[in-house]
Every structure is written in structure tokens, then in C-alpha cells.
Amino acid sequence: MNKNYFFSCPVCKGNMLDKNNTVECENSHCFDKAKQGYVNLLLSQKSSSSRHGDDKLMIQARQGFLDKGYYKNLCDFISEAVLKYAFDGCVILDAGCGDGYYLSSISTLLKSNNINASIGAVDISKDAVKYTLKRTDGVSCAVASVFDLPVKEKTIDILLNIFSPLALKEYSRVLKDNSILICVTPGEEHLFELKKAVYDNPIKNDTLNKALDGFEIKEETRLENVIEIDNNRDIQNLFMMTPYYYKTGINDQNKLKNINRLKIQTVFDVTVYKKL
Questions:
Q1: Pairing mode, if any, of strands 22-25 and 16-18?
Q2: What span, in angstroms and rounded, lies between the C-alpha atoms of 154 and 250?
Q3: pLDDT tens digits for 182-199?
Q4: Do the strands 30-32 and 140-143 form a parallel or antiparallel pair, or are they unpaired?
Q5: Distance CA 75, CA 103 (A)
Q6: Chain CA centroid to CA 274, Å
Q7: Which helix (H) or strand (E) holds 109?
Q8: Residues 6+ apart with CB under 8 A from 258
Q9: pTM exceeding the 0.90 threshold for the entire prediction
Q10: For residue range 46-97, what is the model confidence (pLDDT) as tens digits?
Q11: How many CB atoms within 10 Å of residue 193?
């Protein structure tokens, strides 16, 4: 039986129906479902890059690291923040879902509180979307860019932007009035000890201006913690899941090979906005 699909057509933004193995819009644009259940809605003519997002190696490193609970304080905080603003029947979008670690926790918490939400997730990486589907149940997943979301205007109640690019124009388009945007960015000192172990002249993260046009800041929270890593595999996984990894030369990468213990400060800035 055909049913309404979470996402809209990336070509014409028309409504789409889920037809088991395909999704098709009212203007007959058709997209095949992968065997894992996701749909690739990334239009090739809108992306000239041969490498889209995190590759399988980075996603596996992220999963291996996050599953050890090193970022559990952030995961719990985000989940509670979503629960605070969620309501029965709300529509939630994770824009840049990664491996689905945070979304899995959010989905579980909402269900345990008897909140029936419609949840969608997009990432430009096919591997990320595949892992999100492994972690989550009842979430619609698509390969797509946050800068060209396959979502109709003013349909989202809560949008998550966790360590992913801030596509403000698109977020403003798809969010309803008075809806919620939750952004997570790294603080200045985030992972600085890891950087010191790799680089001769490590640089702190940029301080970001939290003000966003068309949005009111409702809450600002800084989560600080010191994580103790006592094995090289987790240290390597942490480095490989960061954007620094592929920008770092082999000589600097090799500096981590014989390090088996690190104390690292994590600093997460969580900002909750209301769309005006």
C-alpha cells in the first residue's frame, strides 16, 4: 500500500509517495530505494564533488568512538532538549545526521515518553545514512545536502544541526514559524589536547557569533568535560572522526600511533533558537 513519504521531491518539491521499492512524486519523478531503506535525493548536477561527506572509514571510527560513551553527556543533553520542545505529532529533522548516534537516543526517549513524532534524517554521505538506519527504527533517511533539503517549506517543528554546516537559508525555509532549531558547535578548547599531540602549532577553534538572522536565542549552554582515553584505538577513532584527519599530513598522523593514553577536554556549545 502506498503511503506519504517524509521527504519532498528534490526536483520539483512535490509530495512523494512511498511505493515499497521506490518513491515517486506527483510529477512522476521517481527514485529507487536502496536495500537498506534510504533514498538518494542528492541531485548530481548540484554537486560537483566526487567525495560526498564522511566516508565509511570515518563513519566507522565515529561509531566506534561514540559507542564507548565519551560524548554521552552531550547525547543526553540534546535528547532532553528535544523532549522539552517535542509534542505528539511533531515533525523532526536531523540535518547532517552522521552515524545516527544522537538521533537514536532522541527517538528512544520520545517513544518512552509516548510522544509520536515523525522523524527524518539527511546526510550527504551514503555511509552515514546507512549507519543511521542501523541505529534507528521508524526514521526516514535520505542522502541529501543540508544546503538543498528535500523538504517542503514550513513543515519542520524541530531541526537538529549537530556539528554540521549551518545552512541558515534552508533551515529558515523548512522550519515553521515559532519552531525550534538546536545547534551544537565545538567550543574554543574542544579537543585541544588531541591537537597538541598531532600538531606543532595547534590552533583553538574559532569563536562563533551565535546570533542568527530571523531567530531568537532561547537557551545557551556550554557543556565541558574531561574524557580519559586509555587505548590507542579510541584515540585514533577520535582523530579519524574529526575534519582534521584528511587535512593532516602522514607525518603528523603518525604521531598518534604510539600514544595509548590521553586526557582531553571536550567543550560543546548548545544553542536553542526559536524561529521568528
A1: antiparallel
A2: 46
A3: 999 999 999 999 999 999
A4: unpaired
A5: 9
A6: 19
A7: helix 101-112
A8: 232
A9: yes
A10: 544 444 567 888 899 999 999 999 999 999 999 999 999 999 999 999 999 9
A11: 16
